[in-house]
Request: fold
Amino acid sequence: MKSKFDGIPEPLYQFVDHGVEFSSHSDDQWCGTAPFSEKDDHLYVDPATGKWDEKQLGVSGNAWTFLEKMAHHYREQFTPDKQKALADRFGLPVDAVLVDDVGYDPNTNAYTFASRNEKGTVLDIRRRKLNGKPMSTKGCKVRLWGLDSLSRAKPGTRVYIVEGESDRLAMLWLLKKNGRLKDVVVSCPGAGVFKDDWAKPFVGMDVATLFDKDDAGQSGTKQVHAKLRTAGVTAKAWCHDDDWPDGLDLRDFTTHARKTKIPLTECLNSGIIKRLHPLELEDDERPTRPRLVFLTADQVMNTEPPGYIVDGVMPPGVIVLVAPPANAKSFLALDLAISIASDTPWHGREVEAGYVMLVNAEGFGTFGQRIDAAISALPPEKQRLALSRLLITGDAPAIHRQDDPSLIIERARALDEPPKLVVLDTLARCMPGGDENAAQDMGSFIAGVDKIRDALGCAVLILHHTIKDGTTERGSSALRGACDVMLFCKLRDNALTVTFDKCRDFAPPDPMHFALQPHKESVRLVAVDPSAAIAAISDKLKPGMVLRALKEDGDWMSLSKIKTKARVGDSTARRALRDLVRAGLAERKGNKHDAAWRVADSNGRGKGQTVKAVDRKIEGKRSLRSTGLDRLKSRESAEKPGVSVKRSLRSSSAQRTGPSNGHTPGGP
Reply:
């Protein structure tokens, strides 16, 4: 039997399959009429490349843009009577079939489903008659339907893999009806049809498979999970409840049209359809370690870099905030969390708003008073938003053990969207029984943190303590190597300085300076001008003398040279240099044995004003005690007599208890 493709060059298969009638041709050009043409014989196609030009309409392109044009044409033919016919055939409400890439081909009396790649390019149009099976376009490869919506989803988004076009339409309608507009649904062409290279886009997503309750569907579930595992994707396998008869599929969970017992249109609130239960997998079908996956350099270059949770300071990664006990690191973390939860810029930096999950493993104690202080400057609507999006637990998970990170992920996935930030306060409390000095235990802790980060696509902020002298973080150096950002904060006379000690993928920002402002029985952070914060370090004569020595030399200086030039002892010089570095006034390079210091470029060298202020203090020409910071302290003391910041910090630390473990916590 003669086929309509006989004598047609392969690059023209898609044109012929979608109704183009060629009337003449030469070696380098075929002329014909397309379904969307206004006049005959105005479509010209190159038989070698598939590039086309419709002269009358003034449009042109390649084979894929032709499919895009046809998909648009088919949508225009999808009239209300055709919509109702398709909905009745699928047993769905009419509004369930009103999806952009569904159309109707009057030439073949078939319904069309346009399949796009991750970039949104149409690479296939499957057609299906009411009582027939779907068929791909001649010359096109079968593909997942809905892949373009998956590519727009953020890591941690809930993604359902279903079987066939009708089940995807049913699931999309069910999600929309329940207000879950961010969830994604992707359909396979059939049970078990899932190619090896289809798994990669699902990496980092919260994946669940929902196939038909029949032998083919359950066999297909296992095949799909095997392919997902090769890409390192851990997916849930779901099937219909045991008391439902065989042969039912996802459409039977959406409407009375197919006369099922209960339409489950109100059952997505818990995060997964009720009346479904996990499918037990054999041991050899369970998720295993992901195989080694290599990308081409071109793929790496075209990978979109992650944005920021807090602009310029906090990417979606592992962040470590280090400080000695009672140096306000918990106040700083809470201030960050409130900004993200309330969609409020964090001291001038834009945030990506959303849920924040805070593990307050040191116990609640006076934490409610801290929250009240942290939200006190926000307008009422922002306060309500912050209180609804900030989720807190007093339990202490063991992040270095396999199961506990999964508990955090499970709680996060029950939310209507993944959290933007998870806070672990502190590392020691979230590592019970572990040795933070042991690289193996710290490696297990880091693996747990990475698991949370990868599953949710969020930032994980770890609060950690310094060693006794306050110069560096406590424990194994594996933590520093694994984190994306490491910050240090130092509290001196109510002035809090935050410095960026490590930034993996961006230039370290300038130090940030805050004052602790009393509020009722707690305190809140207030950003202050850097020059006011310098007063705290300038109040001491020795740091000023060391800073002057650095300024006068102008180059890298060893410790012995600094001691000689500043005329100070060893321990005094070390303390002064540590404070100057923390305040952003000096820079350090080298290790313990060949360390050197100089005046920071961003302060002493480029802006000598700061150093001059210290000089004036040293020479007695002017006292810096009357800075804006001191005026702020004086004003607050007048407004709230009898309450000091130091007393508030000590009180908060003393009252805080851990309800789940009974420990008396240390500092914030």
The radius of gyration is 32 Å.
